[in-house]
Amino acid sequence: MSHTPRLWTVVSCSLLVASLGAGATACGSDDHPLSTTPYDAAGQVAFNQAAGTRPVDPDRPLEVTAKGAGGSRITDVLAVDTHGRRLAGELSAKGDRWHSTVPLAAGVRYNVTVSTENDKGAPGQRTLAFDTTPAKKLLKVEFTPQEGTYGVGQPIVAELNEPVTDKAARALIERALVVDVKPHQVEGSWYWIADDALHFRPKEYWPAHSTVTVRSNLEGIKVGALHGAASAPVKLEIGDRVEVITDAANHYLTFKRNGEVVTTLPVTTGKPGFATRNGTKVVLGKQYYVRMRGDTVGIGGSEYYNLDVYWATRVTWSGEYVHAAPWSIGSHGNRNVSHGCTGMSTGNAAWFFENIREGDLVTVVNSIGDWMTPFDNGYGDWNLDWEEWREGSTLLKGVRDGYNPVDHARLRPQV
């Protein structure tokens, strides 16, 4: 856990004048200590890290001490690494010692600025630069999906190359995986679906026509026995808000865009024994042609099928699609006869295919089938309500609603 360094506050001249009123002249004298250029405090400050060409061990804390010459004390320490991350630390009450409170990042350069004050109140300053040794074992993060345009239901996935089970390490990772949404930030959170994978979704769907950028601030940061590796950021453009609702009991599909009904299409869904899953699914992809065989999903005997299928929109990894089903057109709008897919006429399926994209939402209601599971058969993330989703976050679990780790990570300057 990071600690904000204790700072000795020095009020600037402009602020003091404003607080005293227009006629105040407390800072008017050029010979006042606060108006002078900081003197070189090299003889009054000592570091435990030495500047030079040899990198230092990042596991060794940074310490700054005041030598006490001229009654000097430390008022502030600013240590910033290559990536602009401020090193958290703590200053003693007397101002005689400052030390870092989190491990240094590996494989970076630190620029350190120490501000001091002598017994007359004159400001001093000393700087230091040093490198840390590169990490030997890296924690890598890979984001999906790849850059492109997606629907409002598309989750972001972060896959790790090593499992992470420690609670503190998980919290650190969540803070370092930053999701920015433009033009307006939204409330959202990560959910640990496995020891080596997280999903991110907002509380509500992504705003239509927004831009979502996800990046990792883990590079060089110590995470257990590992250090974070560099990761490529990903930017997603969010399209229209497209929501499809399939009523399995009424045998009709309603296609909505940005809250308005565009069309209603007659369909057939899964028959008894093969009922279509209820719940909200996220479009995984589209294929103009798919060869569908019953044995690939464990269906044989009298129910076996081997079909050429066109205009296929995939919504589960186990093989549930919305597709053209001309062989059952007599049942569209009145009976459920499929093995779990949503079938429609070829013309309707072609229109659906052209108007749907990855990340759009397809919800099935009133089916006699089971519910869509959250994570093991596609993106069922939206079948968890917000309170359930928060339980999958190390940061949000057990924390009152209203805390937003997106804003927390975005505004938090220290590592």
Q: Explain this structure to me?
A:
- The protein is mainly beta.
- The chain contains five helices and 28 strands.
- It has helices at residues 13-20, 167-176, 346-355, 386-390, 405-411, and strands at 39-40, 45-47, 63-66, 73-80, 89-91, 97-100, 109-117, 123-131, 138-139, 141-144, 148-150, 156-160, 177-182, 188-194, 197-202, 211-216, 222-223, 226-228, 234-238, 242-247, 252-257, 260-266, 279-282, 285-293, 306-314, 321-324, 342-344, 361-365.
- Strand 14 (188-194) and strand 15 (197-202) form a beta hairpin.
- It is elongated and about 95 Å long.
- The model is unreliable at 1-32 and 407-415 (pLDDT under 50).
Summarize the structure.
With 415 residues, this protein is mainly beta. It has helices spanning 13-20, 167-176, 346-355, 386-390, 405-411; strands at residues 39-40, 45-47, 63-66, 73-80, 89-91, 97-100, 109-117, 123-131, 138-139, 141-144, 148-150, 156-160, 177-182, 188-194, 197-202, 211-216, 222-223, 226-228, 234-238, 242-247, 252-257, 260-266, 279-282, 285-293, 306-314, 321-324, 342-344, 361-365.
